[in-house]
Amino acid sequence: VQLQASGGGLVQPGGSLRLSCVASGITYNYAVAWFRQSPGKEREFIARIRWSGGSTAIAGSVKGRFTISKDSTKRTVYLQMNALEVEDTAVYYCAATGRPYSHNQAMAISQYDYWGQGTQVTVSS
Question: What is the pLDDT of residues 93-106, one digit of tens each?
């Protein structure tokens, strides 16, 4: 399994960005998630999508502003980020797991065995 994240950049508060994660080698039983990490803070769960069926989960801190989706034909997972705030500034990582998990486990860093390299998102005026 290999994950390649892209799409980060500099955006003004209130703006939008769409991150992409190309996930090669995953199969129907996998889930792909986005996490983020700001300097001095722990890595934080943002969103998760099951490859089969497409069910999603979103962290409360970004619910209503961020959306996770996928294009199976392109083997790509997207994170659409709207109404960005300065506090959203972080390195964003995509991750994948093929192991079964509970709802809470899906938000745990330890659940994910494969990680992409991260893409920097900076929200600043």
Answer: 999 999 988 878 88
